[in-house]
Amino acid sequence: MFVHDLSHGLVSSSYALAEAGGASAVHASEASGIAAVGWLMIALPLVGAALLLLGGRATDSWGPLLATALSWGSFVVGVAVVAQLLGAPAEERSLSVPLWDWIGVGDLSIAAGLLIDPLSMAFVMLITFVGSLIHVYSLGYMEHDPDKRRFFAYLNLFVASMLILVLADSYVLLFVGWEGVGLASYLLIGFWNWNPPYAAAANKAFIVNRIGDFGLIIGMGLMLTTFGALDFATVHGNAGQAAELTLTLIGLALLLGACGKSAQFPLQSWLGDAMAGPTPVSALIHAATMVTAGVYLVARSQAIYDLTPDARLAVAVVGTITLVYGAIVGCAKDDIKKALAASTMSQIGYMMLGVGLGPVGYTFAIFHLLTHGFFKAGMFLGAGSVMHAMKDTVDMRRFGALGRKIPITWLTFGAGWLAIIGFPLLSGWWSKDLIIEAAFVGEGWRPWVFGGAALIAAGITAFYMSRLFFMTFHGKARWEDDVHPHEAPLTMTVPMMILAVGSVALGAALWPTGIFESWMEPVFGHAVHHEPVIPVLAIQVAVFVLMLIGVGLAWKMYVADEVPVEAPRGNALTRAARKDLYQDEANDAFFVHPVTSLARTAIEADADVVHGALAGGTTAGVSGLASALRRAQNGFVRSYALTMLLGVVAILGAVWVMQ
Amino acid sequence: MADLFTAPEIDFVGLLPMLIVFVGGLVGCLVEGFAGRAQRYAVQVPLAVATLVLAFVALVVLAPDHQGITGAGTVALDGPAQLLQGLIVVLALLGMLVMAERLGGQQPDAFTQSGASAPGSAEEAYAGRLGATTTEVFPLTLLSVGGMMLFVSANDLLLLFIALEVLSLPLYILTGLARRRRLLSQEASLKYFLLGSFSSAFFLFGAVLLYGFAGSMRLDEIAAAISSTAGMDGLLVPGILLVAVGLLFKVGAVPFHAWTPDVYQGAPTPVTGFMAACTKVAAFGAMLRLFYVAVEGARLEWQPVVATVAALSMVVGAVLSVVQTDVKRILAYSSIAHAGFILTGLVSMDQAGISSTMFYLATYGFMTIPAFAIVALVRSSGTEATQIGQWSGLGRRAPWLSAGFTFLMLAFAGIPLTSGFTGKFAVFAAAISQGYAWLAVIGVLASAVTAYIYFALVVRMWLGDEAGDTQVAAPSLLTIFAIVAGVAVTLGLGIMPSPLLDLAQSTSVFLR
Q: What ranges do the domains of chain A cover?
C-alpha cells in the first residue's frame, strides 16, 4: 500500500516537472490553453490521496474536506477543458498533452501523455461530477467512521486512477489507470476488512480482475509485436495493415480485459460480493464509473473492432448474455445492494451490446453509460440512505412502507427507478430504447436474437426494479422491532437530489437537442441510421407494454399481496438466480478446486522444504532440484574448487568437442 | 638506441578520479598509523566520504573532455568506463555510509575490534576493553574502489589482472572482519581468498594463452590479431574462456558461484552489500570490455558458452534461493540469479546489450545496498537475526523499515514501477532482439521462481506471528540516508528509467 501511494505521489510530482521543464515533444495537435494543463485533472486528486495517506492522523480533521474540494477542483478543470473544446471546430477537438518519455529501450519508445477528445472528456465529466457528489455524500455517510480519512484518500486515489484510465493516450498508461482503479476498488471493498467475509469479497474482486488483466496484457503484447507501439495513434492508425486473425485475437484479448473490469459474463461473479464495500463506493465504483471501463476500452479500440467482425460479434454476444443474466439474477435477490448490483451488470450488458453492434451502437452505448451513471449512482446513494435509516439492514423483506418515513429518498429513488425501467421521456428511456432499436438492425439471426433479448430483458428490468422499489418503499412495514426510520442529513440527500434531477432530465437535455450526438461525432463519425427489421414505433410500443406488464406484475406480487419476511423456497429458477445462477459453484468446480488442490500441494511442499523436512515425499519439481543442488553447497572449500575446476573442464571440453 | 624507449603519454588529468581515490586510501592508511584511537573514526569517515564525493565531482567535470586511450594503450577512458566508474563511486559512497553505522556505540558496529585475534581469545577481550576500533575498513574500501575503477577501464590484460588483485585483496580482508559470528566470518574470508586465487590462476593462464596467440596483452591488438590470424584457435579459444572464468568467478556466475553464499553470509553485512553491488559493476564492466573490444571477432566460439552460463546462473540461483532459510543467503542466491540476468543482456552483442547491461548494473546496485543495510538492522539478542523465522511479524514492529524492504523485494522480483522491472525488461529486450529469446524465457521463468521466495519473506514479515525476541536497531542518519536513497532510486528508475537509459545508450561506445 505504502509503495503504491508513494509511487502515485511521485507520478504526480513528475507531471509537474514535465510541465515545468516545457521540454515535451511537439505534436501536430498539441493542446494549448487550459487543455495543456489537463494533467491537473489527475494531479489534484492524486495529491489529495498522497497528502491524506502520508499526512496520517494530522489530516484527520480537514482531510475529508480537502479531498472533496480537490475532486471538485478536478471537475472545474474538466469543465474548462470541455468549454475550450466546444469553442474549437469539431475536427480540432482531439488534443494531445505529452508528458514525458517513459520507457525507451532500443527501438521501443513509450511516452506518457494524455489524449483529450470528446470521448475521454465525456467520461471525465461523469467521473468528476458523480465522483465529487459522492465525496460530498460520504462526508455524511462516513461521518462516524474513525477511519474516514483513509476512506477519502482511497476515493481520491480512485478518481485519479480512473482519470488516468480514460485520459491515457496509450494502452500502457491506460493499463496504469486500469490497475490503479483495481487497487482502489480492492482497498475500498475491503475497507471494513475486520469483517472476514468483506476481506474475502475484496480478494475475490481482485483475483477475478487479474484474469481480465491477463487478457489486457496479452492484447498489449500482441499489439507490441504487431505494431511495435502501444499508443492509440500508432496502433489504430496502422490497424488496417495487420492480419485479420491478429486483430481478432487482440479484440478477444481486450474483451477478456473488459469482461473482468465490467463484470461481464463469464467474469461477473465478483460484482455482487463487492457490495460489501461502503455504499458510496458501490455507487461510484461499482455502478457509475469503474465498471464501465470495459465499455470505454472497447469503444476506444473501435479502430480494431471495426476490422474484425468476429471479435465484435463476441462483444455483442457477451453483452447479450450478461444483460439477460443480470436481469434474471436481479429478480431473485433480497439484498437491496445485490439486486442493484445485478441490475448494474445487466445495464452494462446493454452498453456492451451497444458497442458490440458497431458504428450504429457506439454513441448510444456511451450515452446510456452517462445516463446510467446518474440514475444508478442515485439509486445506490438512495439504498445507502435506506440502510442509514434501517440500522444497516439490507434485506428488502425487512423493509416496506418506507416512502412516508423518508420522503426525499423515496422521491429521488423513484426518479432513478422510473429512469431505469425506461419510463417515457426520462433519461433511461432515451438511452436504452436507442440501444434496443439498434440491436434490431442487421440481417440474418442477429437482430432477432440481440433485439429480442434486449427487448425481453427490458421487461424483466421493469419487473425487478419495481419489485425492489415496492418492497422497499410500499406495502406493509415489515421492520424489525427496534428500527425507527429517519431521513438522512443534507450532505447525503443533496447529492441524491442532484442525481435525481440528472435521472429525470439528462436524457432529454442531451439527446433530442442533438448535443450529445454532435459532441461524439468527431470520435465515432456520423452514424448512418439503419432501419431496424421491425418498425421503430412497434419496438417503442413493445418496450412500453412490456414495461407496464413488468411494473404491474411487481405491483401485484409485492404491494397487493403480502411479502413474507422469510424468503419462500421458490421454484428452481428462483433458487438458481438467488445463487447467481450457480456462477460461484461453476467457478469452484472449474477453477477454485483444481487451483486450491494445486496450491495445497504447493503449501505442503513449502512446509516441508522451509522446515527442512525434505524427506516427506516432496522431491518433485523445484524443491527436488534444489535439494540435489544444495548437496553440492556443502561448505568445504575443496569441493567448491572442484566445482570450479569441473566447470572449466566442462566448458573447455564442450568447446573442444564442438570444434 | 634513442627511440628504443619513449615515455608514454599519460593523461593524468583524465586519470584524476582514480588517483583521488587511491590517494584517499593511502592517506587513510597514514591516518591509521598516526591518529589517536579516539579520533580515527571521526577522521576516517569524513575523509572517505570526501574522497568519494571529490572523485565523483572530478569524474563528472572531467569525463567528457578526457576521453581516449592513455598510459601506453593500457587504460581506456571512454563512455562505458566513465559511466561505470561513476556508478561504482556512488554505490561505494552508499556502502560506505552503511559501514560507518555505529548504532550508538563508539566504533563501526559491524566490524570486530581486533581482526587479527582468534575469536574468543584473551587478545580479543583485551581489545574490547581497550576500546579498539577497526577503522582501517575505510581505507581498505577506498583501495578496493580504486581497483574497481581501474578494472572497468583497463585496456590491457596485465593491467586488468593487477586491478583484479587490487580490488580483491581488500575485499578478502574486509570479509573476515565481522564483529559477531567471527569464526564464520574468518572461514568465509579464507574461502574467498583461496577460491579467488584459484580463479586468478585461471585468469592468468588464459591471459598467457592470449598473449601467445596475439603477441600482445592489449585488448585492441588482440582484436586485430583475431581478424588477421587464422588457425591458432587452440590458443585463442581456451585463452578467452579461461580469462572469462576469472571474471565470471567475480560476479558469481554458475558454475563459479560456490563461494557466493558462504562469503555473503559470513562477511559483515555492510561489506556484503558493498561487495555485491560494486564488485558486480566492476567485473561486468571488465567483461563487457573484454567481450566487446578484444574478442568480438571470435564471438561464435564463446557466445554459446556465456549464454549457457547465463542460463545456468539464472536457474541454479533461482532454484536454490527457494530452499534458503537465511535472509543473507537468499540475497546471495538472488545475486547469482541476477548475474545470470545481466549476462543475458551482455551476450546479445550489440549496443543495446551494452546499455541494458550497464542499466541493469545500476538498478541492481541501488537495490542491493539498502537491502543489506536493512538486514544489518534486524537484531536478536545482540546479533543479526538473519533466519527468516526471526523476520516473522516484523511489519508490525517496524512498519517503515519493513515497507522499504518489501519494496526492495518487489524490485528484486521485477515488479513494474520498480527498477527491477525496467532493468529486466531492458536486458530481455536486448537478448530477444539478438535471437536469444530462449534465454529471455528462462529468465522470465527464473524471475517467477525467485519471486516466490521474496514474496514468502514479505508475507512472513507482514502476516506472520511476531517472533519473540527480534528487535530492530535504531539506525543513524547515515544508514537512513543510504536506505532512502537506494529505495528512491529504485522507485525513480522504475517510473522514469528514460534519463539513465538514454545516458547508458549515449555512452555505450567503447574506444578501441
A: 363-534, 632-659
**Nearest CA of chain B to the CA of A132: how many Å?**
29
Instruction: Say whether B258 and A633 touch across the interface (CB within 8 A).
Output: yes
Note the pLDDT of residue B283.
96
Q: What is the pLDDT of residues B102-151, one digit of tens each?
A: 888 888 888 988 888 888 888 888 888 888 888 999 999 999 999 999 99
Distance CA A493, CA A314 (A): 41
* CA nearest neighbour of A493 among A139, A67, A127, A125: A139
Other Cβ atoms closer than 10 A to A392:
10
Measured in whole angstroms, the distance separating CA B434 from the mean position of its chain's CA atoms is 27
Strand partners for B111: B178
Task: Note the pLDDT of residue B1.
Answer: 45
Contact A290, A277 (CB under 8 A): no
On chain A, the residues whose CB falls within 8 A of the CB of B262 are: 635
Asked whether residue B2 is assigned to any structural domain, the reply reads no
CA pair distance B132, A561, nearest whole angstrom? 93
Is A193 touching B (CB cutoff 8 A)? no
The C-alpha cell at B352 is 543495446
Cα separation of B209 and B298, whole Å?
A: 15
Q: Tell me the pLDDT band of A536, cut-offs 50, 70 and 90.
A: confident
Substitution target from B247, B257, B319, B490 for chain A, most A beta carbons within 10 A: B319
The residue of chain B nearest to residue A112, with distances taken between CA atoms, is B496
Task: Establish if B407 belongs to a structural domain.
Answer: yes
Residues 6 or more apart whose Cβ sits within 8 Å of residue B425: A103, A105
Mutation target vs A (from B351, B367, B495, B502; most A CBs, 10 A cutoff):
B495
Q: Do B425 and A10 touch (CB under 8 A)?
A: no
Q: Please state the domain count of chain B.
A: 1
Mutation for B interface: A183, A203, A608, A640, most B CBs within 10 A: A640
A442: nearest Cα among A517, A360, A524:
A360
CB within 8 A of A452, min separation 6: which ones? none
Contact B322 A654 (CB under 8 A): no
Nearest CA in chain A to B405: A3
Q: Please give the average pLDDT of every successive group of 10 residues along chain B, which has 512 residues.
A: 69 93 95 88 94 96 90 91 96 95 86 87 87 90 96 95 95 93 92 94 95 92 89 88 95 92 93 95 95 90 92 92 90 94 91 92 96 93 87 88 93 89 90 88 88 86 82 91 95 90 90 82
Beta bridge partners of A115: A96
- Domain containing residue B203: 8-506
A325 CB contacts (<8 Å, ≥6 apart)? A265, A268, A345, A346, A349, A581
* Per-residue pLDDT tens over the stretch A445-496: 888 888 889 989 998 999 989 988 988 888 887 777 777 788 888 888 888 8
Q: Please list every residue in chain A whose beta carbon sits closer than 8 Å to the beta carbon of residue B202.
A: 648
- Whether the pLDDT of residue A249 is over 50: the answer is yes
The burial class, CB within 10 Å (0-12 / 13-18 / 19+), for B205 is middle
Residue written as grid cell 569524513:
B46
